[in-house]
Design goal:
- The chain has 2 domains: 232 residues, Enolpyruvate transferase domain (UDP-n-acetylglucosamine1-carboxyvinyl-transferase, Chain, Alpha-beta prism); 224 residues, Enolpyruvate transferase domain (UDP-n-acetylglucosamine1-carboxyvinyl-transferase, Chain, Alpha-beta prism).
- The chain is built from 15 helices and 23 strands.
- The strands form 6 sheets. It has a 4-stranded mixed β-sheet with strand order 1-2-23-22. A 4-stranded mixed β-sheet has the order 3-16-18-17.
- Helix 12 packs parallel to helix 13.
- Helix 8 links the parallel strand 11 and strand 12.
- The protein has 461 residues and is of the alpha+beta class.
Length: 461
């Protein structure tokens, strides 16, 4: 049955509607965001760190390659083993704060905005020259948001087109502490400044009006580094990072929990496919990452979580069941930063809900791997969804009985080089029962979730 539902042709996939129920239990690869940070902070720790279940997506392998280029010995263990837990076992021989070496060529940050923005903060503190550049999609993503605070700290950093975009050139060293209020809630910008602050004279204080994902803070604390997080009365937070701390960073052993953003596609499939159920094991349940679960519960979806560990990250199991009466909602703006990566698949879920779903305050979607608002509006319109583009979000008039019009149906969809758009439209294609959707440029999925189709096949075969 699997071959009938998913047919591949180079960088395209033809998807046909799923016509059976399923009950499945799966795991997904290690969290991307945490994997980036674990490699970075393990590289400047004082000693060897072991990382299990590291994401081996294209983005995360680019981070491994970047730190190897900076002189860090990173070894992949058990290459002949086939089990997921053993083949993703990495040993990082940390070089300490000042052990990174000047790269002999450009550091390729591939398609990863997280890598580009976070490593720029670290390089700003090191007394050597480096250049960061990625693929055509990455090199069109805004970088002034990190250049400005790094310059306030004394960094010499510049970018293309008036410092708007990569490539970025960095001449590091000589940083001073600052107080900085992040203009738009962004974990990447916050983390960039935090990593630069490790090398600065004095204590750096960062204020964010809406607390964002806190993986950098959690891992630094796990390594024994003095980071203070204080909640503000307005719902934001102050993060204080001690500069040039003599204690350094402790090495660690860490099994990275599964990536929630990857799990979101299967959460959607379980909720939308009639009489189905899915459990995702060993997944991150950090409240700054699971805004999608809050939104789904507001919609009336059948979702349960079981927490099994809390340090350095909260993790456990998520179970979802088919929900035949999910309702459209007006998404509270305070949830938006906690589900910023899940909006493409959330839009698919809203398309099959009863009533209107409205999302505002999601301007950040305009500057992801694609303009995700335009990308989803284009693709969902093509399959018959009543969706309206807003300046900072979208409105969807959902239809639980959504069916594509047979006549004149534009079956060819476009991922726009965006992995989350591609995977979201595959899920949409499985839920639609009377159409075949051809999605082009699916190779971009490898940047975040190369195991996506294998995992999907294990459920629908």
């Amino acid at each position: 049955m699997t071959q009938d539902l998913l047919k591949f042709n180079n960088d395209k996939v033809l998807v046909e509607g799923l016509s059976k129920e399923f009950s499945a239990e799966i795991e997904v690869p290690g969290d991307k965001s945490i994997s980036h940070r674990a490699v970075m902070l393990g590289s400047i720790a004082d000693g060897n760190s072991s990382i299990y279940n590291l994401s081996v997506s294209g983005d995360n392998l680019a981070t491994v390659a970047a730190f190897r280029k900076l002189g860090v010995n990173i070894k992949k263990q058990n290459k002949k083993e086939k089990s997921a837990s053993s083949k993703k076992d990495f040993i990082i021989e940390g070089v300490g704060f000042y052990g990174l070496k000047e790269p002999k060529s450009v550091i390729n940050t591939s398609n990863s905005g997280t890598l580009t923005r976070l490593i720029a903060g670290m390089l700003a503190g090191n007394d050597f020259f480096s250049v960061l550049s990625g693929d055509k999609y990455l090199n069109s993503r805004p970088m002034r948001r990190i250049i400005e605070p790094l310059r306030l700290m004394g960094a010499k950093i510049s970018g293309r087109d008036g410092d708007a975009y990569p490539p970025l050139a960095v001449s590091g060293g000589g940083l001073q502490s600052i107080f900085y209020e992040v203009p738009v809630p962004s974990a990447q910008v916050k983390s960039c400044i935090m990593l630069a602050a490790l090398y600065a004279e004095g204590d750096t204080v960062i204020y964010e009006s809406k607390a964002t994902r806190d993986h950098t803070e959690n891992l630094l604390k796990f390594q024994g580094y003095p980071v203070i997080v204080e909640d503000s009365s307005s719902g934001g937070s102050f993060i204080t990072v001690k500069g040039r701390y003599a204690g350094g960073l402790n090495p660690f052993d860490f099994r990275i929990p599964g990536d929630f953003s990857s799990a979101a596609f299967f959460i959607a499939l379980g909720i939308l496919n009639k009489n189905s159920e899915i459990t995702i094991k060993n997944i991150i349940i950090n409240e700054k990452r699971t805004g999608l679960l809050k939104a789904l519960k507001m919609m009336g979806a059948d979702v349960d979580t079981v927490i099994k560990s809390t340090s350095p990250e909260t993790a456990g199991d998520i179970r979802v069941k088919y929900s035949d009466s999910i309702k459209g909602i007006t998404l509270p703006p305070e949830i938006v930063p906690d589900m910023i990566d899940e909006f493409p698949v959330f839009a698919v879920i809203a398309s099959f809900a009863e009533g209107k779903t409205t999302v505002t305050g999601a301007n950040e979607l305009r500057v992801k791997e694609s303009d995700r608002i335009k990308s989803m509006v284009y693709n969902l319109n093509a399959i018959g969804v009543d969706i309206k583009e807003l300046e900072d979000g979208f409105e969807i008039n959902g239809n639980p009985d959504l069916k594509c019009a047979e006549k004149g149906l534009p079956k060819k969809l476009n991922s726009f080089g965006d992995h989350r758009i591609a995977m979201s439209m595959v899920i949409a294609g499985l839920i639609l029962k009377n159409a075949k959707l051809e999605i082009k440029d699916i190779n971009c999925i490898n940047t975040s979730f190369p195991e996506f189709f294998d995992t999907l096949n294990s459920i629908i075969k």
